[in-house]
Amino acid sequence: MARSWLEYRSPAWVQWCPGCGNYGILTAAFKAFAELDLDPAKTVVVSGIGCSSRIPYYINVTGVHTIHGRPIPVATGIKLANPHLTVLVMSGDGDLLGIGAAHFVALGRRNADITVVMHDNAVYGLTKGQAGPTLPAWVQTKALRAPNIQDALNPLLLAIASGYTFVARAYAYHVDKLKDIIKEAIKHRGAAFIDVLQPCPTYNNVMTQQWYEQRIYYIDEQEPDYDATIKSPEERSEKVARAIAKAMEWGDRIPLGIIYRDLTKEPFDARIEKIMPGYLEHPPATRPVHYEGKPLVDPFKVFTDRVVQA
Amino acid sequence: MARSWLEYRSPAWVQWCPGCGNYGILTAAFKAFAELDLDPAKTVVVSGIGCSSRIPYYINVTGVHTIHGRPIPVATGIKLANPHLTVLVMSGDGDLLGIGAAHFVALGRRNADITVVMHDNAVYGLTKGQAGPTLPAWVQTKALRAPNIQDALNPLLLAIASGYTFVARAYAYHVDKLKDIIKEAIKHRGAAFIDVLQPCPTYNNVMTQQWYEQRIYYIDEQEPDYDATIKSPEERSEKVARAIAKAMEWGDRIPLGIIYRDLTKEPFDARIEKIMPGYLEHPPATRPVHYEGKPLVDPFKVFTDRVVQA
Amino acid sequence: MVDLALLIGGPQGGGIESAGQIGVRALVMKGYDIFGVREYHSNIIGAHSYFNIRIRDTVARSPRLPVDAVVALDAESVFTHMDDVREGGIFVYDTSTLKTRVDRIAPMPGPLKERVKAKLSQHGLGDTVADAVKYLESRGAKLLGIDLKAAIKEVAEKSGRSVVSVARAANVVGLSAALAFLGVEKEYVHRAIEAYFAGKTRVIEPNKIAADIAYDYVEESYGLGNLPDGPHKGKVRMVASGNDVVAMGKVVGGLTVQTYYPITPAADEALYMEGHRLVEVREELAEKVGLEKLGVAVIQTEDEISAINMAIGAALAGARSATTTSGPGFALMNEAISMAYIMEAPVVITIWQRAGPSTGMATRTGQQDLLHAMFAGHGDAVKIVVASGDHEEAFYDAIKALNWAEKFQIPVVHLVDKTLAASTKSLDRFDLDSITIDRGKLSYEWSGGEYLRYKLTEDGISPRVPVGFAKQLNSSLEHTEYGYAIEDPEVRNAMVEKRLKKLDAIERGIPEDERVKVYGSSDADITIISWGTVKGPVLDAMEKLEDEGIKVRYVHIKTFIPFPVRTIDEAFKSASRVAVVDYNMLAQTSLAIRMFTGHKAPHVIQKFTGRALQEQEIVRAVKEILENNVERVVVSDGA
Amino acid sequence: MVDLALLIGGPQGGGIESAGQIGVRALVMKGYDIFGVREYHSNIIGAHSYFNIRIRDTVARSPRLPVDAVVALDAESVFTHMDDVREGGIFVYDTSTLKTRVDRIAPMPGPLKERVKAKLSQHGLGDTVADAVKYLESRGAKLLGIDLKAAIKEVAEKSGRSVVSVARAANVVGLSAALAFLGVEKEYVHRAIEAYFAGKTRVIEPNKIAADIAYDYVEESYGLGNLPDGPHKGKVRMVASGNDVVAMGKVVGGLTVQTYYPITPAADEALYMEGHRLVEVREELAEKVGLEKLGVAVIQTEDEISAINMAIGAALAGARSATTTSGPGFALMNEAISMAYIMEAPVVITIWQRAGPSTGMATRTGQQDLLHAMFAGHGDAVKIVVASGDHEEAFYDAIKALNWAEKFQIPVVHLVDKTLAASTKSLDRFDLDSITIDRGKLSYEWSGGEYLRYKLTEDGISPRVPVGFAKQLNSSLEHTEYGYAIEDPEVRNAMVEKRLKKLDAIERGIPEDERVKVYGSSDADITIISWGTVKGPVLDAMEKLEDEGIKVRYVHIKTFIPFPVRTIDEAFKSASRVAVVDYNMLAQTSLAIRMFTGHKAPHVIQKFTGRALQEQEIVRAVKEILENNVERVVVSDGA
Ligand SMILES: Cc1ncc(C[n+]2csc(CCOP(=O)(O)OP(=O)(O)O)c2C)c(N)n1
Ligand SMILES: Cc1ncc(C[n+]2csc(CCOP(=O)(O)OP(=O)(O)O)c2C)c(N)n1
Ligand code: SF4
Ligand code: SF4
Ligand SMILES: [Mg+2]
Ligand SMILES: [Mg+2]
């Protein structure tokens, strides 16, 4: 542990509302990064648009504040170009599961080595409190003009169905527990997803701190036998079923912790290496593209399938 | 049964390749529509873009051939405007689960009374055979320049995770079985999804007719006790778990039939009626908007929250 | 003549919007015409925000600086607006912040802090609120210090509530002090509070107490102002934002489906409509249509791609259908707009422009989406583009847009902006008799044999029977008259010619006076061409300049497609000098003008800061052009 | 002078593409310059398709009708092309189809059937292939009937394979007959088959047998033609499609990431690149860079939104990055393009234009995306727009686009079209020495203290260190030099001015001769202005018209942003007559020209059918304009 977590604090004014769950996530990130001693230049936090998505301004590592719903493709592009970076997506529930749902699913299919931290407040915070994709039907939070008529998604189930190989749920105000899960997610080689329950005191007056704290429990505390990790393909079907059952628990009791972890699937970069040997050693970000301005490729030598002797 | 299925055949030349699985789906649709005696004007087949998506030209009902990935929103708009129509989406795996995945998920959340028939050939047929979202990793079909490095999605699991209340799998060449499932799906009040395994003899030289026929089996034949229908909320968690286990069967044995049906969730139109009484009787498509060209609404009478007495 | 301006500043979440709204209402009750606009950061709580109110006995339609009164609810507001009050104007501030230093204000942007400190030190002053107050005194402002903390404590005591629960009433303290100073009766302040918080007694009471505390304090310490009643006294009026009036226009115009994905500054339009999703039919017509209530289905979608496609689907099925968004959302709609065009689906897309590029400054204004809107969609996609200059225009244009969409069976883009969205205007009754709802060639019955959705006709517009009422094919591919996909060159040419004929029909169907409005005469010293909310500041500046002997003509473009070629061409030919106000970087309006007329304006007035354009900016820019022949004037007033 | 044209038609999936490719190769081996273009339906199997080959001893660059030889592999082709052969030209057809009636051909579009039947009956003929053959005879064509069924049976017997497995060789039978007629040596036909099917012995053998059957039959029955060797005999050349050369250009230009979502006609570019994802380093440089193989990561994404955003991400990380698409896909990229602009991310977007609106005719061509591309993205988003006129241009432009993107840190749109994509050209060696790879202000090391991604500089372009090599902030919001979001008016103005300076840098950095090319002189009878693949037909028509005493000047626009204002302005001023060839409905090129220069061309030549523009269409249109002063000439040659 070479760095203090304070080193990861940026000088910017944190503009979230008082009591916002995002503060807990921010602190947990500082601590996780510090404990993993991440290099600020080589650690990239990519976000979309939303309250939560302003987080790159507040963490003193490399940040990319993209557009609404697209942090996953941008992050995937960064990781694709340079697989040696630590890449995180930190974004809102609306961003990732509303407008961005197609990319959320696609990341699972690729199992790219990216950690997705979803700030799940069940509302669209920055646009003033409309229903988010995780807001249950018939709930009417403060800003709504009528009860919500769309069902909530179950983010964990969706992540498992999409192919994520690390799936967890955490709670924003439990900074140290969250920090531990973020660390595990970053260490995991593959697509990792953490659904962080994040109270939004300004707009979500239903799923409040109190509401959550009456319901959440930690799997590792209450069910120490729960083993979420698949170490060989044979274990998969049984463990996935158990993980899904756990993922579907919601209501009076909400489980927190690592729900699922599959160590048997290769991450995207390893797959690319297989069809394009040399990729990892000389990735697109850094491999030579010219020599003193001269092109490195002679088309008549390379595209021989198109060469004709007249 | 007032109409012959031949009445649903359009005069257009069917331009699919010889042996294409789409023919089976087309015939099954003819038969299902005939047996349900659907009114061609009030039955709407909405498709995206792809080989399969040309199906509206071939069925003699109302058709809407939209753009790639967007048949679900267009169909939702039609159904929203006129809940008294029978609306189907018939489109490809690439269309629905690749570019259209966000809408696929959103339809589940709304549980709109729309039947989605997915022509699942695991390739992008019309663009000449690239990998579709249901093509397993490391498979290299004819047109691919390298093995596929993205994992396949499990469409059934994704549908269940998204909230569809009717989820089934069928096989394109078993026309009568498929027809029965389409009928059930249409009759279901809510978002219905049928994953139709559809051989593409031109591009998918791996998942061929033979490949499928060695693996598929019918749940209702082999497991007559399997009951996929949720009739009360209490049954849900148990039956969903069973459905998910069934949905995850894939490999040497591929189950066909109705995997899941939830009768306890209201469809979207019923939800709208609740927050906007009168909707079903006078839906947006037909409710009066003027009287002899005159507006029906006086803003000073209606928007009284903005009226000020000076 | 009464022409006043008032500015209330404070932190986001600190009640700036409600103070503004209450102020506007009180002043409307007093009988004045009011225009109020709010500036705010893309932030929920804490960043600086302010509300600018213009009060006139003629017509109020633009903000102006300096103002006659500033109400600064916090230290940041004092520093931010210390140059915004005119000499002799009132500056209300919170005495409990006197010791606050610039550098301790976390939300305040660093560069602004530096500028403030430099300015104060230039005047030999330090960097506290007290120093700023001295600076204000030196500039001749009348300072009115109120201890807001103490006031709130008093409110809490008097209302029997906790200090925390009434803390936001500080805004009303400040506002009420300013209104007392001006001479707005206490009664109006009370009524305005009641009207704004309609029915919420627990909010109304402490706010009235807060109002009284400030009002009485001003009365005692300084005496009340003596503003006479305004000319609108006694009338029933409306006080509505641009977002509101567009929603109203659509509902009055017979909209039955509105889809949206939340985005600033469009979402408030949809939300306002959602709050009015069941509306009463006009008494005199209820029996005739057999209904007392009408529903408007307002649907939040998963993204903008879904919003536009769902709106198109609804339109195909016969709904009067629209969606509302801003630049980023509209950018995502491009593909579907091309589909709506070839499918001949009538759909209205409202674009509430905000400052780009990209996310840019999401709560600021601009006119940066003009060319993007005009050429949205691949493959020769055509749409009508209409832009509104003020609240009245926006109301009627919303209706027109729905009519044109159905009449010409084409997508219509309605361009508005954040200034309009976030500005509040006093309005007279709309002229319902002038409104016609036109659904074009729509019919719900078909008995003509096989229905051809794309029938070739004289005017390029086919009879329209909705999906569900005649078997039909709708296709995004090039198609036959029935709708089958076809690539035959002759059918293709016939369909292209059909679509060209439709363009002719649009050219014929939208007369010049709906495309452009001209204010002033051709013997003016300068002709200004622009569009949208540039209108208000220009018309106000015209009056001011006229007083100084400078005659201005203003050519206000209403539709870009079809373009008012004739009027613009004549304007250029008859003008001694032409300047375009182009609220964007690329001078997009100038490009559009040149594209359609060949003319290039020798002068351009630009603003990039995303703040609402102000009267004095135009006054200054026009003088700059006339006096110094400057080609490009960039204005940037407003914090 | 040799100037021949050959057309091979048949059903999609019947080997039209391979016949064309083999034909092109044989003719290149014979020493000619070749241009071949394929027309096809949006269909996998069964619909009509044809390949048009132009054979010249100077330079081949456009299709032409009528051709000198038609090979009709099926009945539909006979009917479709019965007017496409010149008097005295050869028409090869399948005698086993003689009895087929027009109406029995399922894939044939109804309206075309009606036109064919009308034409035949006008000549007193029935509606079978036999009737069409009579019609052809009456038009003076040399008929060459081959029983393809019998020929295939013979191939099957001789190769010891089943009839089904060799059925596709019918295409080579037809092709080989035509080549024999022309006088291309059998050896070249064999070698061409070998080259095209490289290594696939089981395909090569039956095809050679098929070639021989037809060749020998022609030799015996009609005698071989006596085409001399062409001028390129002995050279090592390339035969590549437009899709291929763009992929080659990108790879040579140092591309390291290409993302794509499959779409016609872009996908083949990505697929070709994917097949060459590991390329060898030039021998002389391998040691210097320490690598023998280079990888190009070609990634299929879930949609175009992902494709562009992933490409942007890769660019931020330092990859040379591009994506490829067509109109519908580009429409979906609008929002991200605006982000790339404000983030100053260098990314190249190749747009392979096809016929719209919307899905339109997905496998047909056009230039309908010009204005959409130029104004893509909300909020004043700027990009460079470069367009290629032929294969050579496309190769070099692909490299230029990558250079400009990195040099100016801005998105670059490379406009190409389906004609280029689907046309095959014989090419000489590229001039590697003329190529420079320029990465602008990129560096992988940073030692200057805090790295400011958006540092304000003289030329508006900041030093660029990729993500991963210096801690930094990249933001889609308006930002400070470091990258923090800010809404301060002064910082905003500074950043807008920075971006304006960058536009100046682009204006200065891209000289006029890279923006436009002028062919012919100003004393011409007519000046044609256009761009893209209009070039070939216009240059060919110039020659033809010159022969008839009509002098043409051609102004070929290469970049629309920045626009070649000076040259176009001069062209208008010096020209006696100007016509714009506008391959779209809205006359978008004319609008762009007027927008930037004020000039309006009095004449326009348009084509809507989506078929490749042909030499004779321009010849005809120019005469029409010169002789009859026609304002708008619409051409529509090609089935
Ligand atoms: C294309 C586009 N559509 C809409 C918006 C407006 N917008 C900004 S933030 C946001 C939602 C934020 O919700 P979420 O992702 O849950 O983040 P939160 O604010 O709740 O943290 C939306 C819709 C946008 N910026 N871009
Ligand atoms: C926006 C857009 N992107 C890409 C395409 C090109 N495209 C046409 S069909 C298709 C995929 C078809 O695959 P699928 O949906 O599985 O249908 P199939 O052809 O296999 O039946 C694609 C990518 C398009 N038409 N529009
Ligand atoms: S609106 Fe909600 S999510 Fe956004 S900053 Fe405030 S509390 Fe946090
Ligand atoms: S390509 Fe495949 S899916 Fe498409 S029509 Fe042919 S066989 Fe069917
Ligand atoms: Mg949220
Ligand atoms: Mg498919």
Describe the structure.
- The complex is a heterotetramer, with two copies of chain A (310 residues) and two copies of chain C (639 residues).
- With 310 residues, chain A is an alpha/beta fold.
- Chain A has one domain: Thiamin diphosphate (ThDP)-binding fold, Pyr/PP domains (Rossmann fold, 3-Layer(aba) Sandwich).
- Chain A is built from eleven helices and 14 strands.
- Chain A has helices spanning 22-35, 71-81, 93-99, 101-110, 155-162, 175-187, 209-213, 219-222, 236-248, 268-275, 299-302, and strands at residues 43-47, 62-65, 86-92, 114-120, 123-124, 130-131, 166-171, 192-197, 216-218, 229-230, 254-262, 290-291, 294-295, 307-309.
- In chain A, strands 1, 2, 3, 4, 7, 8, 9, 10 and 11 form a nine-stranded mixed β-sheet that branches.
- The longest helix of chain A has 14 residues, at 22-35.
- Chain A is globular.
- The model of chain A has no long low-confidence stretch (mean pLDDT 97).
- In chain C, strand 22 (578-582), helix 22 (588-597) and strand 23 (603-607) form a beta-alpha-beta unit.
- Chain C starts with a strand and ends with a strand.
- The longest helix of chain C has 21 residues, at 201-221.
- Chain C has 639 residues and is of the alpha/beta class.
- Chain C has four domains: 3-221, 3-Layer(aba) Sandwich (Pyruvate-ferredoxin Oxidoreductase, domain 3); 239-434, Thiamin diphosphate (ThDP)-binding fold, Pyr/PP domains (Rossmann fold); 446-510, no CATH class; 517-635, Rossmann fold.
- Chain C is 41% helix and 20% strand.
- Chain C has 23 helices and 24 strands.
- Classes of the chains: A alpha/beta (310), C alpha/beta (639).
- Chains in contact: A-B, A-C, A-D, B-C, B-D, C-D.
- Chain A binds chain C through residues 13, 15-18, 49, 51, 65, 67-69, 98-99, 101, 124-128, 130-131, 133, 143, 145-146, 150, 202, and chain C through 13, 42-47, 106-107, 261-264, 267, 271, 274-275, 277, 300, 302-304, 328, 358-359.
